[in-house]
Amino acid sequence: MSVTINVNGTPREVLADAETPLLYVLRNDLDLKGARYGCGAGFCGACMVIVDGKAVQSCDVPVGALAGKSITTIEGIGTPDKPHPLQRAFIDEQAAQCGYCASGIIMTAKALLDTRPKATDADIREALTGNLCRCGTHTRILRAIRRAAAGAAK
Amino acid sequence: MSTGVQRKLPGSLETNRALDRWLTVNADGTITVRPGKVEIGQGILTALVQIVAEELDVDAARIRLVGAATTLSPDEGITSGSRSIQESGIALRFAAAEARELLLQRAARRLEATVEQLSVTDGVVTSRAGGSITYWDLTDAKLLQRDATAEAPPKTAAEYALIGRALQRIDIPPKVMGAPVYVHDLVLAGMLHARVVRPPGPGMRLAAAEVDEVQQMPGVAAVVRDGSFLAVVAQREEQAIRAARRLARITQWEGGGTLPSSDPRYLLECETEDEVISEKGNAPDSSDAKTLAAEYTRPHIAHASLGPSCALAEFRGGRYTLWTHSQGIFPLRRDLSAALGVPEEDIEIAHMEGAGCYGHNGADDVACDAALIARAMPDTPVRVQWTREDEFGWEPYGSAMVVRMRGSLDEHGRIASWVHELWSHGHSTRPGGKGGVNLLGAWHLAQPVAAARPGNPPLPAGGSHRNALPLYAFARQRVVNHLVRSAPLRCSAMRSLGAHANVFAIESFMDELATCAGADPVEFRLAHLEDERARAVIEKAASLAGWRPNEEGDGERGRGIGFASYKNLGCYVAVVVEVAVAETVRVERAWCAVDVGQVINSDGVINQVEGGIVQTISWTLKERVAYDRQTVTSRNWDAYPILTFDEVPLIEVALIDRPELPPLGAGEGTQGPVAGAIGNAIYNAMKIRLRDMPFTRERLIAALV
Which of B81, B130, B469, B495 has the fewest CB atoms nearer than 10 Å to its CB? Predict the structure, then answer.
């Protein structure tokens, strides 16, 4: 089945069954590896992308449901030469150990800060309830997100 | 000219002497460095960059790190045990120092000067007598085509410009950009997707598999069956997933061992091999004034890597090529050679990063799965992804443990005798050892290749008995290891091995004795410690926390301290935690002092320590592998909760840098001390002593009743 989805501002046509989770379409059809497989059940947030401004677990949404919607992945928010403020903050705070959770968390944080630029620490922790980090990098990740928020607030 | 016995070379240089295996100086202004240790999120590659850049006098940006591969890297065994700085760091330190010396010798000839007249800045060699030349003009392939001698002395700490600093991690920028850096992201032309269908539980055999139905499903290229090893291969990943689910539903299995009770005390009923690892005087003595006894336990815990294990393999022309996040590609190759029945030379393995593993997780097993599937489909690259359920159900676990302590106090309130007895399965079933193959798929083949006997690394490092020997000075002590070799749930190396449970027991019991003696926990520890570095971290952590002698909890909040030197040879860690106890136990704050000897990358150490603190809080408050008689039942995050963003404490870490001492690994120093500190803090808060990890809400309520 042919589905056209809008990814990072560009319409992309993919040949996949409608019930294929978006995660596999992104990774295998569009070569966008930033959304990662962690659990396939919506628990860990490693696969997080943004759909029409909301953070969504791409492992848990069928590609057929996304026609006409705007999907943003980690690859679409910044480049090595022009990183997104969140990416810049994660680097400045060295907010990663293995880094596997990072792209999912950055997308969750972006969805939050885009709608709530003055997010408090409590807001950030609340938004991250669907994201797991197994290495224990939480304190740095929170610091990085606060840093990005503070930077944007200026 | 040297004759006779070669002296021992530092670290991994001893067994990998060819200098150009480790590094090459390139005419284009770069340095290629090939460590045998791998990045597992601990920052080792960045630390090695610092070491090489420092010794060579080049800008760190010139260094190109090549991931470990059997075809071109030194064999450094397994990246584990917090040994990488000590083994790889020292090898590269001496190799780089020797490379610099060789370059200077060439420069001296070219500039008609002596080596003493030369200085180097970023690869530019300048002579005091005039003239300069670059490393890039001096180098050629022959420069490092020789064995290391380790005779060129590395720099002294006083000369350091880069070592000790917080150089930013070289691997973080690509990761936060979402770059395809993990083995999970590798794409090979013509690659097919595979999923393994494992038995419902350990010890089960395949009885009947209706593969015809699954072979007809959309996109399915093959169903691979070899004995009880069952896998499905498809064009698209979601097709493999769907087919595997169908296959799992219609496949019949039989047999299965009986899994034990979920209470770790099942270990006390098992057959054991007993080893007295320390005996000093008569402990305990019936004449001792006050005696105390306590029993502590830890359940099986899971590595629970955020990214389930993944590997790619191709079998072409009789040769295997594999891509894996295994911590030890050379040991893996040995076991694969035996499992596949081919010589090691016919197997090539390249390392790519995985998610954090924290020890021996599913990485080696999925590599074996990939090789077996590739063998069934020659000339076709195969990608095998373990599901979350596979990883939780089949990874090797950190063993359940029971520790029984007995101690006594003399009339002055000092510890007169100390007994520590532990029961545990062995803590290492890693591939590459003798006597068998430690790869899951190999055990399920029609002609299975048997596993090696599970066991322990020997002391001084130890396995289940790691950190069972107290660093405290006791006149009379006895430490006994009861090894339960037969393990119904496979157990292997999990960050800090036995230290988590042993130090939890030691540090809890120190506090129990301190309470009995009416002593302050910090002063009590110092009164029994001669080791200066140990005393220093305890004093520093206490000072950081503003510890007040004999400070009281208030029924809800309390604080406690924990301490250890990892393996009694490694880094020193002391940590004070503050808990708040309401419906559950929450750790609100942690103050930690760390001594790793010479610090290579200060931020790298702090990152590891913070991460270890958070992970250990999670283990100690929440984690246990759940199982029934047949199988592990905790297969996803809902059944195996870990610490979340709203549960992490405020953490302060102080580093005691000792640049004149050897550098020590930081990754496994916090597990034991944090567990002990939490138990002690809960007691300080509530006057309730919890001795069975995890300290869940249920355990708290049971203790309150």
Answer: B130
Strand positions, DSSP E, B154-228? 192-197, 204-208, 220-226
Find residues 147-176 of chain B whose CB sits inside 8 Å of chain A: 166, 168-169, 171-173, 175-176
Residues of A in contact with B648 (CB under 8 A): 136, 138-139, 142
Where chain A has pLDDT below 50, the residues are none
Find, among A70, A73, A150, A144, the residue nearest to A118 by Cα: A150
Q: Which of A37, A94, A102 sits opposite B603 (nearest CB)?
A: A94
Do the chains contact at B178 and A33, CB–CB below 8 Å? Answer: yes
Dig out the tokens for A19 from the structure. 């019930």
From chain A residues 44-83, the ones with a CB under 8 A of any chain B CB are 44, 46, 73-75, 78-80, 83
Token reading at B669: 């120093």
Residue A115, chain B, CB below 8 Å: the answer is no
pTM of the model: 0.97
Q: Degrees (nearest 5) of the Cα angle A12, A54, A123? A: 150
Does the beta-carbon distance from A33 to B615 stay under 8 Å?
Answer: no
Between helix A102-115 and helix A85-92 the angle, nearest 10°, is: 130
Tell me whether A120 touches chain B (CB under 8 Å): no
Nearest-by-Cβ selection for B168 from A31, A73, A94: A94
For B548-564, the pLDDT digits (tens) are 999 999 999 999 999 99
Mean pLDDT by groups of 10 residues along chain B of 705 residues: 70 97 98 97 96 98 97 96 95 98 98 97 97 98 97 96 96 98 98 98 94 96 98 98 97 92 97 97 77 97 98 98 98 98 98 98 98 98 98 98 96 95 97 95 97 94 98 96 97 98 98 97 98 98 98 97 98 98 96 97 97 98 98 98 97 96 96 98 97 97 89
Q: CA–CA separation, B43 vs B22, rounded Å?
A: 19
Distance from CA of A20 to the nearest CA of B (A): 7
Which residues in chain A are contacts of B638 at CB distance < 8 A?
43
Three-state secondary-structure class, residue B171: coil
Query: Which long-range CB contacts under 8 A does B625-630 form with residues at least 24 apart?
Result: B625/B299, B625/B300, B625/B301, B625/B302, B625/B397, B625/B489, B626/B262, B627/B259, B627/B262, B627/B300, B627/B489, B628/B259, B629/B258, B629/B259, B630/B200, B630/B201, B630/B256, B630/B259
The single residue listed with the structure tokens 């169908």 is B246
Using CA atoms, how far apart are residues B634 and A43, in angstroms rounded to an integer?
A: 14
Provide the shortest C-alpha distance from residue A24 to chain B (in Å): 7
DSSP B5: P
Report DSSP state, residue B648: P
List, as one string, the DSSP characters of B437-479: ---HHHHTSSS--PPPPPB-PPTTT-STTTT-S-SS--SEEEE
SS3 content of chain A, % helix, strand, coil (to 5): 45, 15, 40
Which B residues 38-67 touch A at CB under 8 Å? 40-43
Kindly state the tokens that stand for B472: 């405290």
Q: Which of A85, A21, A31 is nearest to A58 (CA)?
A: A21
Structure-block tokens of residue B92: 């590269």
Record: contact A132-B42, CB cut-off 8 A? no
- In chain A, the DSSP E strands lie at 2-7, 10-15, 48-51, 54-57, 70-72
CB contact under 8 A, B355 and A98: yes
Interface test with chain B among A92, A139, A143, by most B beta carbons within 10 Å: A139
Closest CB to A46 among B169, B306, B385: B306
CB-based contact (8 Å) between A18 and chain B? no
Which tokens is B142 given? 């022959």
| Angle in degrees, 0-180, between the axes of helices B90-111 and B44-56, rounded to the nearest 10 | 30
- Residue A9, min C-alpha distance to chain B (Å): 17
